[in-house]
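Run log // design_07
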């Protein structure tokens, strides 16, 4: 395992870096401290060919460009304070109503327009791990509490990309951190509809216009039943707007590191397993990618990547029957997600 730090020459208040993690099999992960963002993952196929299996930009400064920030798909970013949506941009906590920035119609999405995805994080290398730190002040984007976030990235020789999240606060506050990488195991520009996916979840949270109704519903008999392998495009016509952008209620206990999904791409033989300690996971199939961004001359277009966003449920602060997403001074946020790359022979 090797980790190197590359300084990007740019005129900003903090230095900008790219970190490259590489293991013995040639799997390589690149991360920038802009948004604690995974810019690329390169992994071998069944013939040993190493190709990029994520969507992102070669130039890290593009993540700070006006064009990108005005229409950000959060490619590879660490998002927070609250990943996913909070309805009407408001919640009540300890008898007080809080109002958040609205950046998704009438709703709050992924921490708001000044969320963690656009911050320049402090960063360093410690024991072959990339450690990124961010301070979020009290009432930033409307959230109570001074929050310190530490996100640690490491790569094992078993092709496991490990993301450890830890955060503390001096006031009770909603906190929901995830990584928003888009995967495409083909290793080339293509749609992801023929990727096969299994999710270890017997239930999901139905939503209306992406906001959960509060119900937890069994997946059996619905297009959300991935308890056996199904192609991502197989049942799209049964969905509203032919899009997966839904939260799954993961089997197993919160706090227990468990395998929650397996994706495989038949032509390349590449596989991706997801493990997490979180109680939920958002499956998003990249429907709203619209070609407005490009990397190395290629447009990033609809349905060219899928996300497995491990998380607390969307709008949890407004649903008492959902797992609590409140971090307190006595109960820090501490979760782990692992993405393991492999080959299906």
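design_07 sequence
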């Amino acid at each position: 395992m090797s980790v190197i730090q590359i300084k990007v020459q740019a005129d900003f208040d903090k230095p900008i870096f790219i970190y490259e993690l590489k293991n013995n099999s040639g799997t390589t992960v690149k991360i920038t401290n802009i948004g604690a963002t995974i810019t690329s993952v390169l992994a071998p196929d069944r013939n040993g060919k190493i190709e990029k299996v994520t969507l992102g930009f070669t130039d890290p400064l593009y993540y700070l460009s006006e064009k990108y920030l005005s229409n950000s798909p959060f490619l590879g970013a660490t998002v927070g304070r609250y990943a996913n949506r909070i309805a009407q941009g408001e919640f009540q906590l300890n008898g007080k109503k809080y109002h958040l920035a609205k950046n998704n119609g009438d709703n709050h999405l992924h921490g708001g327009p000044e969320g963690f995805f656009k911050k320049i994080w402090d960063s360093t290398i410690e024991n072959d791990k990339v450690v990124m730190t961010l301070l979020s002040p009290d009432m930033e984007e409307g959230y109570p509490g001074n929050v310190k976030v530490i996100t640690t990235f490491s790569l094992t020789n078993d092709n496991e990309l490990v993301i450890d999240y830890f955060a503390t606060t001096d006031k009770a506050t909603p906190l929901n951190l995830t990584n928003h990488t888009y995967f495409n195991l083909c290793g080339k520009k293509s749609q992801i509809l023929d990727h096969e996916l299994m999710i270890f979840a017997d239930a999901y949270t139905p939503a209306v216009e992406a906001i959960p109704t509060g119900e937890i519903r069994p997946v059996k008999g619905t297009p959300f039943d991935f308890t056996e392998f199904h192609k991502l495009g197989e049942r799209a016509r049964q969905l509203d707007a032919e899009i997966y952008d839904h939260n799954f209620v993961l089997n197993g206990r919160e706090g227990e590191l468990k395998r929650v999904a397996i994706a495989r791409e038949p032509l390349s033989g590449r596989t991706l397993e997801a493990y997490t300690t979180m109680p939920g996971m958002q499956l998003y199939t990249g429907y709203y990618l619209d070609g407005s961004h490009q990397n190395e001359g290629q447009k990033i277009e609809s349905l060219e990547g899928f996300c497995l966003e491990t998380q607390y449920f969307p709008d949890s602060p407004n649903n008492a029957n959902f797992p609590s997403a409140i971090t307190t001074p006595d109960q820090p946020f501490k979760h782990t997600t692992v993405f393991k790359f492999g080959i299906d022979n």
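The mean pLDDT is 97.
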